[in-house]
Automatic annotation (TrEMBL):
Its main location: membrane. The gene is ccsA. The lineage of its organism: Bacteria, Pseudomonadati, Pseudomonadota, Betaproteobacteria, Burkholderiales. It holds the Pfam family Cytochrom_C_asm. This is Cytochrome c biogenesis protein CcsA. One of its GO terms (molecular function) is heme binding. The chain crosses the membrane at residues 33-53, 59-77, 84-102, 122-143, 155-172, 184-207, 219-236, 263-281, 302-324, 339-357, 364-386. It is found in: Membrane. It is a multi-pass membrane protein. Signal peptide: none annotated. Keywords: Cytochrome c-type biogenesis, Membrane, Transmembrane, Transmembrane helix. The keyword Transmembrane applies.
Length: 395
């Protein structure tokens, strides 16, 4: 039972120790009318989507759709900014869908679709916003200016709104091409780099809000800008933005949960590595003043790795189940599977050393930073240099 110390002047419930306590209200009793209205709106949205697009879904996809309402309601209750993020993305996405009117070629005819909220336009604006956000975070960091850093935060939020809108609209556009082509946009390197950027940014913005500091932003946004740079190169050199039919091996509902869980892990590992870089700079005496305390940096690094490890573990289990369905075996020592195991073991060892031996400080930070190299090879290097059953995202 959760107990909190009662403030002075309250009627005490005296205990043997002499301290006075009152029972804290239960979780659901702390929710407000606005919280419940938010949950009701999500449920209504899920029911609407189910009725409108349910004929495109199988039973597993229907279950995922209905489960999204309580999951996102809990997320909105825990982190309030997510509420208006969801509302804006929903409104912008529905606006884009209404302008398409069931015809894909409207994307080149309607002004707002062509230049703002078609999938490619929204994702392009997302990329611009992330790059500008990185610039303003660094200007604020170098000049000790909260105003410039605040602008970096606002631009990051704008990028997240536009990025998620682009992903939702791209999902719809795939169905306009053909019912047999339509799929969730997490099936190739172009799409997962967008997903990686959005997830990393959202987890960073959560930690920024929780710790009330923007001084980690310049470092975390660097990895997002690097992903955007790769996205630009990959798009222009491979025409990667074009929506393509799914390969047969990817035509499974497992993809809808395995890939997002995987990239929540990758995003958190990348975030932890960039915070580790900030830790190393501060602990060495370089850039010491503007950065948060070592304790804060260490705590963010630990929590990011913990969250990433949890989701990466789930993704690995889901991947094994998917492999059993697609290839007849849970594990085949394919290069992608092998490197996923190496990533998992690396962070399992990091967490074990922290919990069992109290790993802290510069050794933990260096380990987290080197972990980014391991993760990057598992994410990209396998596609570039190795081949196997997972060779759908070749460069």
């Amino acid at each position: 039972m959760e107990l909190t110390e009662k403030s002075q002047g309250s009627t005490p419930a005296t205990q043997a120790s002499g301290s006075t306590y009152v029972q804290a209200p239960g979780y659901f009793k702390r929710l407000t009318v606005v919280d419940w209205l938010f949950a009701a709106a999500l449920l209504a949205g899920a029911v609407f989507a189910f009725n409108r697009y349910g004929h495109f879904m199988d039973v597993y996809e229907e279950a995922i759709m209905l489960l999204c309402a309580p999951v996102f309601a809990a997320l909105g209750w825990h982190w309030k900014p997510v509420r208006w993020l969801m509302a804006l993305v929903a409104l912008l996405s529905l606006w884009a869908i209404s302008m398409y009117a069931g015809q894909l070629d409207m994307g080149t005819q309607k002004f707002w679709l062509r230049y703002m909220i078609s999938s490619q336009s929204a994702i392009l604006w997302m990329s611009v916003m992330f790059c500008l956000s990185t610039l303003f975070y660094w200007i604020g960091f170098a000049g000790r200016s909260e105003a410039w850093s605040s602008l970096g935060t606002k631009l990051s939020w704008a990028a997240v709104v536009l990025g998620w809108t682009g992903m939702m609209v791209r999902w719809y556009e795939s169905y306009l091409i053909g019912a047999d082509v339509g799929h969730i946009p997490v099936s190739n390197l172009y799409e997962v780099f967008i997903l990686f950027s959005l997830i990393t940014a959202m987890f960073y913005l959560y930690f920024e809000d929780r710790y009330k500091t923007r001084q980690m932003g310049p470092f975390v946004l660097l990895i997002i800008t690097a992903a955007i740079g790769f996205l630009f190169w990959y798009t222009t050199s491979r025409d990667a933005a074009e929506i393509q039919p799914l390969l047969p091996a990817l035509q499974s509902w497992w993809m809808k949960i395995h890939v997002p869980a995987n990239f929540i892990g990758y995003g958190n590992f990348a975030l932890a590595a960039m915070v580790a870089m900030a830790y190393l700079l501060k602990s060495s005496g370089r850039l010491a003043d503007p950065l948060p305390s070592l304790e804060v940096l260490d705590d963010v690094m630990y929590k990011a790795i913990s969250a990433g490890f949890a989701f990466f573990t789930i993704a690995t289990i889901l991947g094994a189940l998917w492999a059993a369905e697609a290839w007849g075996g849970y594990w085949s020592w394919d290069p992608k599977e092998t490197w996923a195991l190496i990533v998992w073991l690396n962070y399992a060892a990091w967490l074990h050393m922290r919990l069992m031996t109290g790993l802290r400080g510069r050794p933990a930070a260096w380990w987290a930073l080197v972990g980014l190299l391991v993760t990057t090879f598992a994410f990209l290097g396998v596609n570039m240099f190795l081949s196997g059953l997972h060779s759908y995202g070749k460069l």
